[in-house]
Amino acid sequence: MPDIDDVTRLALPIEEETDLDPVLDRIGDARCVLLGEASHGTHEYYAWRAALTRRLIVERGFSFVAVEGDWPDCWRVHRSVTGAPGADGDPYAALDAYRRWPTWMWANHETVAFCRWLRGHNAALPPERRAGFYGLDVYSLWDSLRAVMLHLAEHRPEYLATAREAYRCFEPYGDDPRAYARLVPEDCADEVLALLTRLRRPAGGGRAVDPAEQLNARQNAEVAAGAERYYRAMIGGGERSWNVRDTHMADTLDRLLEFHGPRSRAVVWAHNTHVGDARGTDMGRAGLVNIGRLARDRHGAAGTVLVGFAGGHGEVVAAPRWGAPMEVMRVPPPRSDSVEALLSGTGLHRALFVFSDELDARWLTATRTQRAIGVVYDPDHELGNYVPTRLGERYDVLCWFARTSALDPLHLEASRRGELETLPTGV
């Protein structure tokens, strides 16, 4: 079979961290490296993503990690790994404090191990050179609004009334902004915009405000504005809410790069559906954008490297329905028309593939489906968990694991909070 032979010829080993050398060569001077995952509950994706990130921070001086997570929760982790005064001394405590479903995405032992390493790495560096850990996502409306109010009360009390107006606007709708979106689709936009406009202004009156605190306050206001747009768009359906969310994440990435300076470099951790260029899937034809596409558009193909992950069969942590407790589920063998079936046919246990424009391989340009497991998953009815994909267009690098194992969560799920966590697709 020609495709099998072509795949095998291109395959590189991925057994030890030194096997990642070809990926570092491919990254070169790129400013943004986006590392995906084919599920939110697979050990191999998290472990190898962390291994590559460690090398990028140590050997290439990358400035921060930005993940598909909530800003306030990740800010607590950021303060821990950078040794901020008063922060948790062990990142375990900061990660174990995640309580919004699905907690296992970041409250897991794999992430703890990486963040403990990052804290130890940072401890030997001056504060301005310490690598951060940030959240990119648009959720956490209430936590972000509360954080803004606390910041303004201490540092910019003249704007506190504006923050209270934004908070009061959402207050009648409780913990479910979907109710706000259904009932009053325009009511809070002006209040949130006014708050954001004020926080974008530098502090006046000769007041000295820690730049990190200013970043935190402004980003929380950006989250509130993004969430307001997202929940309104979500009720309308179609592609607009997805685009609002991924554009917010891409904008947040750019704000972080700006904050860290013109020589800063970023690693992003998110699902393949966000990392892989949407133009290499059916998402592009549907009018959807994602972080991968936006990063390539904004920072150039040479300045952006997209790394996808794929797995054959094994186990995964997911939930059987929305808001349900996590379970360890089996992942069945892949469907016959998939990328995973092609890679399984090689007999390779693990493999690394580095793509380039010079490669002339039909399997990189042909359309095959690729498995995408979200936070909600039903192994017995998984036909909808596949994305039509042209690998060479979607990614620059692909990591393959024939057999996968479940992520190791820190704790059982707490009861679900009312705020909608993510799109019903679960990615």
TrEMBL record:
Q: Which Pfam families match?
A: Erythro_esteras (PF05139)
The stretch of residues making up the signal peptide is none
Q: Which CDD domains match?
A: Ere-like
Q: What is this protein called?
A: Erythromycin esterase family protein
The organism of origin for this protein: Actinomadura miaoliensis
